[in-house]
Amino acid sequence: MVERQSPLEPEFHTGSHGNFEHGVEILLTETRPGSIVQLTAWPGEEKTLMAAIRTFTGLALPDGAGGGLSDGAKSVFGFAPGKFTVTDEAEGLAAAFAKVVTPAIGTVTDLSHGRIAIRIAGPKAEWVLAKFFAIDFALPAFPIGAGRSTTHHDVFAQIQRTSADQFDIYVFRSFARSFWKALCHASEEVGYEVQ
Amino acid sequence: MLITCPYCGPRDVIEFTYQGDGNRERPDPASQNFEAWNAYVYDRLNPAGDHNEIWQHSGGCRAHLRVVRNTLTHEISSVAFVRGDHAPATRRKAEDKA
Questions:
Q1: Measured on CA atoms in the order A31, A61, B91, B26, is the torsion positive or negative?
Q2: What domain range includes position A128?
Protein backbone atom coordinates (compact mmCIF):
# COMPACT_ATOMS: atom_id res chain seq x y z
CA MET A 1 0.00 0.00 0.00
CA VAL A 2 1.12 3.53 -0.73
CA GLU A 3 1.94 5.51 2.39
CA ARG A 4 -0.83 7.98 3.02
CA GLN A 5 0.25 11.54 3.76
CA SER A 6 -1.64 13.77 6.10
CA PRO A 7 -3.22 16.85 4.50
CA LEU A 8 -2.76 18.60 7.86
CA GLU A 9 1.02 18.35 7.83
CA PRO A 10 1.99 22.01 7.21
CA GLU A 11 -0.40 23.10 9.97
CA PHE A 12 0.05 20.18 12.33
CA HIS A 13 2.15 21.46 15.23
CA THR A 14 2.40 19.11 18.19
CA GLY A 15 2.51 20.63 21.67
CA SER A 16 0.43 23.03 23.72
CA HIS A 17 -1.00 26.17 22.18
CA GLY A 18 -3.24 29.10 22.94
CA ASN A 19 -4.27 30.07 26.44
CA PHE A 20 -2.94 27.01 28.28
CA GLU A 21 -1.45 28.68 31.37
CA HIS A 22 -4.30 27.29 33.46
CA GLY A 23 -4.23 23.89 31.84
CA VAL A 24 -5.08 22.29 28.52
CA GLU A 25 -8.79 21.71 28.04
CA ILE A 26 -8.78 20.44 24.46
CA LEU A 27 -6.78 17.64 22.88
CA LEU A 28 -6.63 17.53 19.08
CA THR A 29 -5.37 14.51 17.15
CA GLU A 30 -5.64 13.01 13.71
CA THR A 31 -6.68 9.39 14.19
CA ARG A 32 -5.68 8.19 10.70
CA PRO A 33 -7.97 5.18 10.32
CA GLY A 34 -6.80 2.74 7.65
CA SER A 35 -10.32 2.37 6.25
CA ILE A 36 -13.23 4.78 5.98
CA VAL A 37 -16.13 3.16 4.16
CA GLN A 38 -19.65 4.31 3.40
CA LEU A 39 -22.33 1.64 3.11
CA THR A 40 -25.78 2.21 1.69
CA ALA A 41 -28.70 -0.20 1.80
CA TRP A 42 -31.46 -0.17 -0.77
CA PRO A 43 -34.88 0.45 0.81
CA GLY A 44 -35.93 -2.65 2.71
CA GLU A 45 -32.38 -4.08 2.91
CA GLU A 46 -31.27 -2.11 5.98
CA LYS A 47 -31.43 -5.06 8.37
CA THR A 48 -29.41 -7.25 6.00
CA LEU A 49 -26.75 -4.55 5.76
CA MET A 50 -26.70 -4.07 9.54
CA ALA A 51 -26.21 -7.83 9.93
CA ALA A 52 -23.28 -7.71 7.48
CA ILE A 53 -21.72 -4.86 9.47
CA ARG A 54 -22.08 -6.94 12.63
CA THR A 55 -20.47 -9.97 10.98
CA PHE A 56 -17.44 -8.00 9.79
CA THR A 57 -16.89 -5.61 12.66
CA GLY A 58 -18.50 -7.34 15.63
CA LEU A 59 -20.45 -4.13 16.23
CA ALA A 60 -24.22 -4.52 16.62
CA LEU A 61 -25.80 -1.29 15.37
CA PRO A 62 -28.70 -0.05 17.47
CA ASP A 63 -31.95 0.86 15.72
CA GLY A 64 -32.79 4.53 15.39
CA ALA A 65 -31.54 7.57 13.52
CA GLY A 66 -27.84 8.27 13.94
CA GLY A 67 -27.26 5.19 16.09
CA GLY A 68 -23.74 3.86 16.32
CA LEU A 69 -20.95 2.47 18.44
CA SER A 70 -17.20 2.07 18.60
CA ASP A 71 -14.83 -0.46 20.13
CA GLY A 72 -11.76 1.72 19.83
CA ALA A 73 -10.38 0.11 16.67
CA LYS A 74 -13.58 -0.05 14.63
CA SER A 75 -16.46 2.42 14.56
CA VAL A 76 -19.81 2.53 12.85
CA PHE A 77 -22.68 4.99 12.84
CA GLY A 78 -25.74 5.84 10.78
CA PHE A 79 -25.66 9.26 9.15
CA ALA A 80 -28.70 9.09 6.84
CA PRO A 81 -31.63 6.75 6.23
CA GLY A 82 -30.10 3.38 5.32
CA LYS A 83 -26.56 4.80 5.17
CA PHE A 84 -23.67 4.04 7.48
CA THR A 85 -20.05 5.09 7.92
CA VAL A 86 -17.71 2.32 9.03
CA THR A 87 -14.08 2.89 9.96
CA ASP A 88 -11.28 0.56 10.94
CA GLU A 89 -7.68 1.07 12.06
CA ALA A 90 -6.73 -1.59 9.51
CA GLU A 91 -6.88 -1.18 5.75
CA GLY A 92 -8.94 -3.31 3.42
CA LEU A 93 -12.40 -2.87 4.92
CA ALA A 94 -13.98 -1.84 1.61
CA ALA A 95 -12.70 -4.96 -0.17
CA ALA A 96 -14.04 -7.13 2.65
CA PHE A 97 -17.48 -5.52 2.56
CA ALA A 98 -17.65 -5.67 -1.24
CA LYS A 99 -17.80 -9.48 -0.96
CA VAL A 100 -20.94 -9.50 1.19
CA VAL A 101 -22.75 -6.28 0.30
CA THR A 102 -23.93 -7.49 -3.09
CA PRO A 103 -25.61 -5.18 -5.63
CA ALA A 104 -28.94 -6.61 -4.43
CA ILE A 105 -28.32 -5.34 -0.88
CA GLY A 106 -26.68 -1.97 -1.43
CA THR A 107 -23.45 -0.18 -2.22
CA VAL A 108 -19.94 0.12 -0.78
CA THR A 109 -17.96 3.33 -1.25
CA ASP A 110 -14.33 3.47 -0.14
CA LEU A 111 -13.65 6.94 1.30
CA SER A 112 -10.34 6.04 2.96
CA HIS A 113 -8.46 8.52 0.77
CA GLY A 114 -11.31 11.01 0.54
CA ARG A 115 -11.93 11.85 4.18
CA ILE A 116 -9.79 12.35 7.23
CA ALA A 117 -10.66 11.86 10.88
CA ILE A 118 -9.94 14.54 13.46
CA ARG A 119 -10.44 13.73 17.12
CA ILE A 120 -11.33 16.46 19.58
CA ALA A 121 -11.31 15.49 23.24
CA GLY A 122 -11.35 17.19 26.59
CA PRO A 123 -13.71 18.90 29.02
CA LYS A 124 -14.34 21.77 26.58
CA ALA A 125 -14.85 19.61 23.44
CA GLU A 126 -18.63 20.13 23.46
CA TRP A 127 -18.14 23.84 24.02
CA VAL A 128 -15.72 24.25 21.09
CA LEU A 129 -17.87 22.19 18.72
CA ALA A 130 -20.95 24.21 19.68
CA LYS A 131 -19.16 27.21 18.14
CA PHE A 132 -18.99 25.33 14.82
CA PHE A 133 -22.19 23.38 14.47
CA ALA A 134 -25.80 24.31 15.26
CA ILE A 135 -26.67 20.94 16.76
CA ASP A 136 -27.18 19.79 20.33
CA PHE A 137 -23.98 18.28 21.71
CA ALA A 138 -25.35 17.57 25.21
CA LEU A 139 -24.93 13.91 26.18
CA PRO A 140 -28.68 13.08 26.40
CA ALA A 141 -29.26 14.50 22.88
CA PHE A 142 -26.04 13.11 21.40
CA PRO A 143 -25.25 9.83 23.17
CA ILE A 144 -21.92 7.97 23.05
CA GLY A 145 -21.49 6.12 19.75
CA ALA A 146 -24.10 8.17 17.91
CA GLY A 147 -23.33 9.97 14.64
CA ARG A 148 -24.53 13.24 13.12
CA SER A 149 -24.09 14.74 9.69
CA THR A 150 -24.02 18.49 9.47
CA THR A 151 -22.05 21.33 7.91
CA HIS A 152 -19.72 24.11 8.98
CA HIS A 153 -19.75 26.90 6.36
CA ASP A 154 -20.60 24.39 3.62
CA VAL A 155 -17.88 21.99 4.77
CA PHE A 156 -19.76 18.74 5.20
CA ALA A 157 -18.87 16.95 8.43
CA GLN A 158 -19.82 13.67 10.00
CA ILE A 159 -19.39 13.60 13.75
CA GLN A 160 -19.34 10.56 16.01
CA ARG A 161 -19.24 10.83 19.78
CA THR A 162 -16.74 8.20 20.93
CA SER A 163 -16.84 9.02 24.66
CA ALA A 164 -18.49 11.52 26.98
CA ASP A 165 -15.96 14.22 26.11
CA GLN A 166 -14.55 12.97 22.82
CA PHE A 167 -15.74 13.38 19.22
CA ASP A 168 -14.38 12.07 15.91
CA ILE A 169 -15.04 14.42 13.00
CA TYR A 170 -14.85 13.16 9.40
CA VAL A 171 -14.30 15.91 6.83
CA PHE A 172 -13.36 15.99 3.16
CA ARG A 173 -9.62 15.66 2.73
CA SER A 174 -9.51 18.74 0.50
CA PHE A 175 -11.11 20.91 3.19
CA ALA A 176 -9.29 19.26 6.09
CA ARG A 177 -6.46 21.73 6.54
CA SER A 178 -8.65 24.82 6.67
CA PHE A 179 -11.08 23.03 8.97
CA TRP A 180 -8.19 22.00 11.21
CA LYS A 181 -6.92 25.59 11.38
CA ALA A 182 -10.40 26.81 12.30
CA LEU A 183 -10.61 24.13 14.99
CA CYS A 184 -7.25 25.23 16.41
CA HIS A 185 -8.31 28.90 16.43
CA ALA A 186 -11.58 28.01 18.16
CA SER A 187 -9.68 26.04 20.83
CA GLU A 188 -7.13 28.77 21.55
CA GLU A 189 -9.09 30.52 24.27
CA VAL A 190 -9.31 27.38 26.45
CA GLY A 191 -5.84 26.07 25.65
CA TYR A 192 -5.27 23.06 23.42
CA GLU A 193 -2.69 20.39 22.84
CA VAL A 194 -1.95 18.72 19.51
CA GLN A 195 -0.72 15.14 19.74
CA MET B 1 -36.14 29.10 10.25
CA LEU B 2 -35.81 25.53 11.51
CA ILE B 3 -36.83 22.44 9.59
CA THR B 4 -37.22 19.28 11.63
CA CYS B 5 -35.68 16.58 9.47
CA PRO B 6 -37.35 13.21 10.17
CA TYR B 7 -33.89 11.64 10.44
CA CYS B 8 -31.62 14.36 11.87
CA GLY B 9 -34.03 16.38 14.02
CA PRO B 10 -34.37 20.19 14.03
CA ARG B 11 -31.75 21.89 11.85
CA ASP B 12 -31.16 25.41 10.60
CA VAL B 13 -32.54 26.18 7.15
CA ILE B 14 -28.97 26.83 5.93
CA GLU B 15 -28.48 23.03 5.81
CA PHE B 16 -31.38 22.61 3.38
CA THR B 17 -31.82 23.25 -0.34
CA TYR B 18 -35.16 24.17 -1.84
CA GLN B 19 -36.08 21.75 -4.60
CA GLY B 20 -39.23 23.41 -5.81
CA ASP B 21 -42.98 23.32 -5.64
CA GLY B 22 -44.30 20.05 -4.22
CA ASN B 23 -47.65 20.31 -5.98
CA ARG B 24 -46.33 19.63 -9.48
CA GLU B 25 -47.18 16.34 -11.12
CA ARG B 26 -44.74 15.29 -13.79
CA PRO B 27 -46.49 13.94 -16.87
CA ASP B 28 -45.46 10.59 -18.29
CA PRO B 29 -42.11 11.23 -20.08
CA ALA B 30 -43.65 9.81 -23.27
CA SER B 31 -46.65 12.07 -23.03
CA GLN B 32 -47.25 14.59 -25.81
CA ASN B 33 -49.93 16.42 -23.87
CA PHE B 34 -48.48 19.91 -24.21
CA GLU B 35 -50.97 21.45 -21.81
CA ALA B 36 -49.90 19.02 -19.09
CA TRP B 37 -46.22 19.77 -19.75
CA ASN B 38 -46.91 23.50 -19.79
CA ALA B 39 -48.70 23.23 -16.47
CA TYR B 40 -45.85 21.15 -15.01
CA VAL B 41 -43.21 23.66 -16.06
CA TYR B 42 -44.99 26.97 -15.54
CA ASP B 43 -48.18 26.80 -13.49
CA ARG B 44 -47.78 27.57 -9.80
CA LEU B 45 -50.41 28.00 -7.09
CA ASN B 46 -48.48 30.79 -5.32
CA PRO B 47 -50.66 30.59 -2.20
CA ALA B 48 -50.61 33.03 0.71
CA GLY B 49 -50.57 30.34 3.36
CA ASP B 50 -49.66 26.66 3.54
CA HIS B 51 -47.59 25.50 0.59
CA ASN B 52 -46.38 22.00 -0.32
CA GLU B 53 -42.66 22.10 -1.03
CA ILE B 54 -39.79 19.72 -1.72
CA TRP B 55 -36.57 20.35 0.20
CA GLN B 56 -33.34 18.39 0.37
CA HIS B 57 -31.34 18.12 3.58
CA SER B 58 -28.22 18.70 1.51
CA GLY B 59 -26.05 19.63 4.48
CA GLY B 60 -27.10 16.60 6.53
CA CYS B 61 -28.59 13.23 5.62
CA ARG B 62 -29.24 14.37 2.03
CA ALA B 63 -32.79 12.96 2.10
CA HIS B 64 -35.49 14.65 0.03
CA LEU B 65 -38.31 15.93 2.19
CA ARG B 66 -41.92 16.88 1.64
CA VAL B 67 -42.42 20.07 3.64
CA VAL B 68 -45.53 22.15 4.28
CA ARG B 69 -44.45 25.76 4.87
CA ASN B 70 -46.65 28.77 5.48
CA THR B 71 -45.56 31.40 2.98
CA LEU B 72 -46.76 34.22 5.28
CA THR B 73 -45.22 33.11 8.58
CA HIS B 74 -42.56 30.53 7.51
CA GLU B 75 -44.13 28.14 9.99
CA ILE B 76 -43.34 24.53 9.07
CA SER B 77 -46.38 22.38 9.85
CA SER B 78 -45.27 19.06 8.37
CA VAL B 79 -42.06 17.33 7.27
CA ALA B 80 -41.89 13.82 5.82
CA PHE B 81 -39.57 11.79 3.61
CA VAL B 82 -40.53 12.07 -0.05
CA ARG B 83 -39.87 8.35 -0.36
CA GLY B 84 -42.36 7.54 2.39
CA ASP B 85 -43.40 4.22 0.91
CA HIS B 86 -39.98 2.79 1.67
CA ALA B 87 -39.45 3.96 5.22
CA PRO B 88 -35.96 2.82 6.21
CA ALA B 89 -35.42 0.69 9.29
CA THR B 90 -33.30 3.39 10.85
CA ARG B 91 -36.01 6.02 10.67
CA ARG B 92 -36.54 8.14 13.75
CA LYS B 93 -39.46 6.88 15.83
CA ALA B 94 -42.75 8.72 15.48
CA GLU B 95 -42.71 10.01 19.08
CA ASP B 96 -39.34 11.68 18.46
CA LYS B 97 -40.75 13.83 15.70
CA ALA B 98 -41.33 17.45 16.61
A1: positive
A2: 21-32+114-194
pLDDT of res. A119: 95
Of B11, B63, B93, the CB nearest to A81: B63
CB distance A135–B15 less than 8 Å? Answer: no
Q: Which of A44, A134, A149 sits opposite B61 (nearest CB)?
A: A149
Q: What is the pTM of this model?
A: 0.88
Determine how many CB atoms are found less than 10 A away from the CB of residue B29.
5
Would residue A166 count as lying in a domain? Answer: yes
Task: Verify that A86 and A151 share a domain, yes or no.
Answer: no
Same domain, A167 and A125: yes
> Quick one: pLDDT at residue B91?
39
Pair A135, A64 in one domain: no
User: What is the distance between the alpha carbons of residues A89 and A87, in angstroms, rounded to a whole number?
Assistant: 7
The DSSP-derived string for B13-54 is GGG-EEEEETT--PPPTT---HHHHHHHHH-----SSEEEEE
Q: How many domains does chain B have?
A: 1
CA distance A42 to A83: 9
ipTM above 0.90, yes or no: no
Quick one: pLDDT band at residue A1, thresholds 50, 70, 90?
Answer: low
Q: CB–CB of B90 and A82 under 8 A?
A: yes
What CA dihedral angle connects A106, A33, A66 and A138, to 10 degrees? -170
